[in-house]
Amino acid sequence: MLLEKIKNRESNLTTFAPMTDNGTFIVEGGHKLSGEIIPQGAKNEALQIISCCLMTPEPVLLENLPDILDVNKLLDLLAGLGAEVDRIDRQTVRITAKNIDVEYMLSKEYVSDAQRIRGSVMLIAPMLNRYGRATLPKPGGDKIGRRRLDTHLLGLQALGGDFQYDADRHIYTFTTKGLKGTYIHMDEISVTGTANVVMAAALADGETTIYNAACEPYLQQLCKMLNRMGAKIEGIGSNLLKIQGVDSLGGTEHRMLPDMIEIGSFIGMAAMTGSDITIKDCSIQNLGIIPRTFERMGITLNMKGDDIHIPAHDHYEIQSFIDGGLMTIYDAPWPGFTPDLMSICLVTAIQARGSVLIHQKMFESRLFFVDKLIDMGAQIILCDPHRATVIGMDRRAPLRGISMSSPDIRAGVSLLIAALSAEGTSRIDNIHQIDRGYQDIDGRLRALGASIVRE
Ligand SMILES: CC(=O)N[C@H]1[C@@H](OP(=O)(O)OP(=O)(O)OC[C@H]2O[C@@H](n3ccc(=O)[nH]c3=O)[C@H](O)[C@@H]2O)O[C@H](CO)[C@@H](O)[C@@H]1O
Ligand SMILES: C=C(OP(=O)(O)O)C(=O)O
């Protein structure tokens, strides 16, 4: 069955990940989970790395790709552009971007598909480098607040790219007569913005310095991959990158890191549901302050080699700051705490002992889903669009199962965690939002003992 699907997929890129536009989970709460789970390859790394495959006409082999909607959509975009996309198995793909049809970027199909994912924004630099022009419809991704593109646009402009914005069609058109290295102080520490500018500079004429660059592990992975392809990037892992432009890049092989957001999601899920689980092969050295942040919420993490074991918690108590002040969890660009785990921390605090202020600084519409948690019985005060105070219930009362809809990818998983911990049955609609970023999440959690039915 699997093999048939893979063959199918090689010929027309039909995806494994369900492509429904909404979908529903029926979750019976109260079952404890147990066992081992392997995190998928990182979604946000995969989107950078797949885009980078357009930088060379030679084959690039990608391993540990997650089979999720956003990744498959980006692969479809590359295939539409004329790249050969050979799926070797569920997590392995070879991409050869030899004969690219730049006109495809103007097609209705391209515009409509590129609008659906954030990752499409990173196709600009490779196309500008190799073909001198690129088109970008306003990219999609989570509707979690304003997501401006200034960092990308100003960076590419500094390198010699021109752009025009068609405000009626929401389409940017980029052209260049040749990119030239320069000094760039990035407008803000943007992850995808840095990826775009790094890729543009890698094949530009001369030296580029990027200051205020994002430096998170997935960006480091992109820079390392580019260097294996023949680029000359120094300062990897810092916010000051020096890039000596080269004439061309060759093929390579690349393996995605485990997805740190999935790992954090499983830690929160284990604590909330009082489950004993082991998350395998976490690449702990690349998790930054994620483990420490969950430990500050009172969750015990036993590190065993590269595995994280979370024992069953009857109780977990949120720590105070050293001066006795109320714990605040807030997001910041790497090496700070990732914004993509804020919703997970929020839901995890519901059954902790003590209180925590969740301060989501980067995005302004990510906390509104708390109304559903409040309906389930959680004690949360939404202070303003950026801040919510959670008053932990210490398991004095369980949440109640309700019907709800998933507004975005991380809120969706947070609602799933709440539903798994709740008394009774919950219905979560619009789970296509969850499928954007979590591979076969229902199947993998069922294997740990969860009761989830996909409708
Ligand atoms: C496909 C992908 O990789 N998506 C990730 C990427 O999105 P993306 O690259 O789109 O996000 P950016 O890093 O550009 O910025 C995220 C948001 O934070 C704001 N901002 C950023 C830096 C800063 O110093 N101050 C500030 O307020 C930006 O204005 C923006 O609203 O990085 C985000 C931040 O880690 C993650 O949430 C997304 O999951
Ligand atoms: C916000 C996210 O994704 P995207 O940038 O693709 O919308 C996320 O992964 O949490």
From TrEMBL:
Lineage of the species this protein comes from: Bacteria, Pseudomonadati, Bacteroidota, Saprospiria, Saprospirales
Localisation per UniProt entry: Cytoplasm
GO biological process assignments: cell division; cell wall organization; peptidoglycan biosynthetic process; regulation of cell shape; UDP-N-acetylgalactosamine biosynthetic process
Associated pathway: Cell wall biogenesis; peptidoglycan biosynthesis
Family that this chain belongs to: Belongs to the EPSP synthase family. MurA subfamily.
The protein, known as: UDP-N-acetylglucosamine 1-carboxyvinyltransferase
Reactions this protein catalyses: phosphoenolpyruvate + UDP-N-acetyl-alpha-D-glucosamine = UDP-N-acetyl-3-O-(1-carboxyvinyl)-alpha-D-glucosamine + phosphate
UniProt keyword list: Cell cycle, Cell division, Cell shape, Cell wall biogenesis/degradation, Cytoplasm, Peptidoglycan synthesis, Transferase
